[in-house]
Design a protein that fits this description.
- There is one protein chain.
- By secondary structure, the protein is mostly helical.
- It has 2 domains: about 30 residues; about 200 residues, MetI-like (MetI-like fold, Orthogonal Bundle), CATH 1.10.3720.
- It is built from 10 helices and no strands.
- Helix 7 runs antiparallel to helix 8, helix 8 runs antiparallel to helix 10 and helix 9 runs antiparallel to helix 10.
């Protein structure tokens, strides 16, 4: 009962805080100022999502096969060395990666996608490798004992049991991607960073928040969507006969 009462009290406080924040925003004109940027937010959010989808999709298409290859026993002695190559994308600051991409690929969408692709690779490669290497050896021995080929073991035993870890890497990578896309504005890539950085330059907090709040909400939404997709795929992998 005390815990339930505490939860109810916290909910009441949150509702009261939201009410007063809304009343203050309405009386001060902040809400009207924020609504002024809605058309810009809608347009720039489309660019933001496109950059995330393209760079994140390419990272998934490259990173998962690489993680699978590195997890094979024949690659065991080289796996960590190769992993450090992908670690470069995380070690080097994102602004430096963007600057390097701009130096070689020019200004615009292409260098932005390339830089975001590089920054997104490591979590997916690492989690794919870790998930596959963490599969119970007894399962692999049982699969080999009933005559499964290496490819059958990979697709029927290893990947289904590693899906949770792989999806954790994808969630981390895509949320990181969404939060990094605003920097693409600095090299002409577009996205919600246009409102954020222009708002900073003009000392306009409302414009800055018009870009920052949707970016945060997009990160939460992407994380939730990947979590739902992971749950559905893992359930299907555990119970393949379910519709």
């Amino acid at each position: 009962m005390p815990i339930q009462s505490l939860n109810m009290a916290l909910r009441a406080l949150v509702l009261v805080a939201i009410f007063f924040a809304g009343a203050w925003g309405q009386s001060s004109g902040v809400i009207d100022d924020f609504l002024f940027y809605i058309p810009d937010v809608q347009y720039l959010m489309g660019q933001h999502l496109w950059l995330t989808a393209v760079s994140g999709g390419l990272a998934i298409l490259v990173a998962i096969p690489v993680g699978i290859v590195l997890s094979r026993p024949s690659m065991e002695r080289w796996a960590e060395t190769v992993m450090q190559v992908f670690n470069i994308g995380t070690t080097i600051p994102t602004l430096a990666v963007l600057a390097l991409a701009m130096s070689f690929l020019g200004i615009g969408t292409v260098p932005s996608v390339f830089a975001l692709f590089v920054a997104t690779l490591l979590p997916i490669v690492r989690n794919t490798y870790t998930g596959l290497r963490g599969v119970d050896p007894a399962l692999l021995e049982a699969a080999a004992g009933i005559g499964m080929s290496p490819m059958q073991r990979l697709f029927r035993v290893e990947l289904p049991n590693a899906l949770y870890v792989i999806f954790a890497g994808i969630r981390t990578a895509l949320v990181l991607n969404v939060g990094t896309v605003p920097l693409a504005f600095l090299i002409g890539g577009g996205g919600l960073g246009e409102l954020i950085f222009t708002g900073i330059d003009l000392f306009d907090p409302v414009m800055m928040l018009a870009g920052a709040i949707p970016t945060a909400l997009l990160a939460v939404l992407v994380d939730a969507c990947i979590a739902v997709a992971a749950f559905l795929m893992i359930q299907r992998g555990v119970n393949p006969d379910r519709a």
